[in-house]
């Protein structure tokens, strides 16, 4: 089984989403024998944002990296994403990574009846951190966006582990992290879903 671990926070060791995504991955390592894990830190190793030169494929290094990003995603059975909420949505580096996945004929195709996802059968676990309380509120553009983009790719099993209100106070942060860690999905639960 292959697991792809992506982190998007710019906060390094102070990142709650990184703490949560690492806990998810460690749980999978502990419970799934022979698990192959690949990792990309989008802060340390960002994927370039799409530009006209990207579409023209004029930079061979960028083309090779984009293909590697896509191949890692397509090969993964499970994708764990550490995604902090920035300005009510996802980090721009995560959006740039997603833009490299959205490739017609590889992760989706258009038909007479509309788009069809080609990357189904994966499980996506999003470890989300938020300074405020946004779940179910009109300010949440993170969850709906991620659900939509992965559904577009044919992935309907997207699960969120959230620590919210972490900027309210040190106690809120501690409590939110503890609640999120207590709610981590179990690998066997995911396999049965």
Structure keywords:
globular; 193 residues; two-stranded antiparallel ribbon; alpha/beta; 40% helix; single chain
What does this entry show, briefly?
The chain has 7 helices and 7 strands; from the N terminus they run βαβααβαβββαβαα. With 193 residues, it is an alpha/beta fold.
Walk me through this protein's architecture.
A five-stranded parallel beta sheet has the order 2-1-3-6-7, sandwiched between helices. The chain has helices at residues 16-31, 52-56, 60-75, 92-101, 142-152, 170-182, 187-192; strands at 2-7, 36-41, 78-84, 108-111, 114-117, 123-129, 158-163. The mean pLDDT is 94. It is globular, with a radius of gyration of 17 Å. It has 193 residues and is an alpha/beta fold. Helices cover 40% and strands 21% of the residues.
Ordered list of secondary-structure elements with their pairings:
Blueprint lengths: L1 E6 L8 H16 L4 E6 L10 H5 L3 H16 L2 E7 L7 H10 L6 E4 L2 E4 L5 E7 L12 H11 L5 E6 L6 H13 L4 H6 L1
Parallel strand pairs: 1-2, 1-3, 3-6, 6-7
Antiparallel strand pairs: 4-5
Helix-strand string = EHEHHEHEEEHEHH
Describe the main β-sheet briefly.
5 strands, parallel
Strand order of the largest sheet: 2-1-3-6-7
Q: Specify the number of helices.
A: 7
As a percent range, the share of strand residues is 15-25%
Number of DSSP strands? 7
Helicity level: 25-40%
What shape does the CA trace take?
Answer: globular
The rounded Rg comes to: 17 Å
- What's the end-to-end separation, in Å? 16 Å
| Regions with little confidence, pLDDT below 50 for 5+ residues | none
Structural class: alpha/beta
Average pLDDT rating: 94
């Amino acid at each position: 089984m292959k697991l792809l671990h992506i982190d998007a926070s710019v906060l390094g060791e102070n990142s709650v989403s990184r703490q949560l995504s690492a806990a998810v991955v460690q749980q999978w390592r502990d419970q799934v024998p022979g698990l192959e894990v690949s990792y990309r830190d989008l802060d340390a190793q960002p994927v370039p944002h799409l530009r006209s030169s990207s579409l023209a494929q004029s930079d061979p290094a960028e083309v090779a990296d984009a293909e590697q990003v896509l191949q890692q995603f397509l090969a993964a059975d499970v994708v764990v994403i550490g995604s902090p909420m920035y300005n009510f949505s996802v980090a721009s580096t995560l959006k740039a990574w997603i833009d490299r996945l959205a490739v017609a004929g590889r992760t989706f195709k258009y038909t007479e009846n509309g788009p069809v996802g080609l990357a189904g059968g994966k499980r996506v676990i999003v470890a989300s951190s938020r300074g405020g309380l946004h779940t179910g509120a009109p300010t949440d553009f993170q969850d709906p966006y991620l659900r939509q983009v992965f559904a577009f790719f044919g992935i309907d099993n997207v699960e969120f582990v959230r620590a919210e209100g972490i900027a309210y106070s040190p106690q809120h942060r501690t409590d939110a992290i503890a609640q999120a860690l207590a709610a981590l999905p179990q690998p066997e639960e995911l396999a049965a879903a």
